[in-house]
Amino acid sequence: MHVFVTGGSGQTGPTVVAELVAAGHTVTGLARSDAAAARLEALGATPHRGCLEDLDSLRGGAEAADGVLHMAYGGDYADPDDLIRRDRAAIEALGQTLAGSGKPFVSTSGTLVTKADRVSAEQDAPDPDSVAAFRIAGEQACLGFAEQGVRSSVVRLAPTVHGPGDYGFVPALIAAARRAGVSAYIGDGANRWPAIHRADAARLFRLALEKAPPGSVLHGAGESAVTIRSIAEQVARILGIPTASLTLEQAAEHLGNPFLAKFFSLDVPVSSEHTQALLGWTPEHATLLEDLETSDYFTPQASIRAEEIWLPHHGTNEHSRS
Question: In the chain, which stretches have pLDDT less than 50?
Fold first, then answer.
């Protein structure tokens, strides 16, 4: 299959591209810079110059492909309307190009669209009051193409997609622990997050392209419910520092970012049982706590990168996770 990929040069994208190439697929990847193009070429993919705002470029990439995988996401996180507009426009451009073809179209969302304080399944409707409600419009736009002759599906990724080079939520927690000399959680720390190893996520994306039925919602969660306290305790043990329980307000100061504190306070476990049964997908790589032991989370470079992204604000950021 010839697959057109957006976000293939981001954080999760290169592992996905490598998975597709290794499985015998031909990959063309959207590249908005020379560096992105070079990274794609090194992975065995062909760069396709453009960006999310260049809808003609997206249409051209989709037209020439046998299937589309949309992972890119970006915009001003302080302006949810901007995030929704950009993502929905890109999805509609890609989906309309594939209409009537029967080709696969896999888009990316996040499990944080689900309702908090319960274990959510794939069949559960997204929560319009969720912290990631800005992803719902994109989900619905992609799934709507199932009624227009497109084998469309959505992969909701866990908030923590872990592995080497991670610059997401957990590195921000580690960087804050280094600065303060204490590894913190909020309240009793019993709130739960799903997590997935990047290699398991890559295989899930490939299987979704190859055989997900039209209209499928898939959960990219290798672990359903990792407590924030267990993460904080693992960080404390590795750094040789104590743990501490903080209020939400104290956590905002500790992390240097109220947005992060809100996320780390959420209890948002999900199940991926339906996804595993539907696609024959079994997560088999390291757990998050295992990865903290063996990956590069505690290098000085990881903390520097996390602070560059999270400390100033949570505003404009282009990436390909969700």
Answer: 313-322
